[in-house]
Amino acid sequence: MTPTRPCPDRPLARRAAAAFLAAGLAAALAPAVPSAPASSSKKPPVDPAVRAVLQRMEQAQSQVTSFKAKVTETRRLAVLEKPEILRGEFSFESPGKMRWDYREPEQRTYVLADGHVIGWIPSQNRVEKMDVQRREARLRRMFAIGQGADALLKDFAVTLAAASSVPEADELVLVPGSRRMRKRVAEIRMWVDRGNDLPRQLRLVTGEGDSVEFVLSSVQVNPKLAADAFTVTIPKGAKEVRGISGLSIFGNAAEETETVEDRM
Fold first, then answer.
1. pLDDT tens track for 218-262
2. CA–CA separation, 174 vs 246, rounded Å?
3. Between these two residues, 68 and 16, which has the higher pLDDT value?
4. Phi/psi of residue 221, each to 5°?
5. Segments of the chain assigned E as strands
6. Nearest-5° angle of CA 194, CA 76, CA 97?
7. Is 143 helix (H, G, I), strand (E, B) or coil?
8. By C-alpha distance, which of 217, 218, 161 is closest to 190?
9. β-pairing, 126-131 with 239-242?
10. What is the pLDDT of residue 146?
11. Secondary structure (DSSP) of 162-177
């Protein structure tokens, strides 16, 4: 049995959720949204070094209209005996179109565009579709991405590691301020490249202790992407599932399976 085709139920749910953490990479490169007014509640003063890194990243994000990179994803989950490593390619286009293509150990394609996620898994002849329009803002907040410096500092306690574990990068440690969010995301570590001021590595640790880490390579900033880069052609006879299996961060699950012919 291949690593990306586990037994159903809980293991599958965990893996499906982990796969979609990759969306955080694209949103991390999106232009920052306007910051909300600063909260009046008392908080410790922000380290000037932290604010400087965030502002550099915010400025760099504002210049990104498209992005493409190779991605190595490492999943360390309680349901796995050993870490699982996936490799593929990731693309982004402003204001929020995303595509990630897994090549190893199994081919899978996921596209987020116009408030909908479509996934295609050839080995299973399976298409997964989900409307996420009402959940996109929650996802962005949860992963501390695509936000201005002030917005991040409002939702997260942000510190700067004294010594970065990644050369030529600043290591930010983000801890959610709300207890409810910490049940889902305990900590995010983001390594900001000192060359282009964009995230080049990200590690997310869930409230249950699972972690997913992404490392970018062969980075292209503002490349010209193909016109059909954010579309997925659904083959006839494919098994379609409404919803993304076990994607708990969106509060939904797979349901009601039908083939393409059933709907034609």
1. 999 999 999 999 998 888 888 888 876 533 333 333 444 444 444
2. 25
3. 68
4. -100, 130
5. 66-76, 84-93, 97-104, 108-113, 116-121, 126-131, 156-160, 169-176, 185-193, 199-206, 211-221, 239-242, 255-259
6. 55
7. coil
8. 161
9. parallel
10. 60
11. SS-SSTTEEEEEEEES
Q: Are 6 and 19 within 8 A, CB to CB?
A: no
CA–CA gap between residue 43 and residue 46 (Å, rounded): 8
Residue type (1 letter), 92? F
Question: For residues 73 and 214, is the Cβ–Cβ distance under 8 A?
Answer: yes
Which two structure tokens, joined as six digits, stand for 84? Answer: 């699982």
User: Smallest Cα–Cα separation from 143: which of 27, 5, 63?
Assistant: 27
Provide the whole-model pTM: 0.75
Q: What pLDDT is stored for residue 16 in this prediction? A: 35
| Residue 226 DSSP code | P
Q: How many CB atoms lie within 10 A of CB 20?
A: 23
- If you write DSSP's letter for every residue of 9-44 in order, what string do you get? THHHHHHHHHHGGGHHHHHTTSPPBPPPPPP-S--P
Reported confidence tier of residue 148, pLDDT bands at 50, 70, 90: confident
CATH topology of domain 10-263: outer membrane lipoprotein receptor (LolB), chain A (2.50.20)
CA distance 44 to 62: 28
Question: Residue 20: pLDDT above 70?
Answer: no
Q: 85-134, pLDDT tens digit by residue?
A: 989 998 988 877 888 898 998 888 888 888 888 888 898 898 988 887 77
| pLDDT computed for residue 137 by the predictor | 60
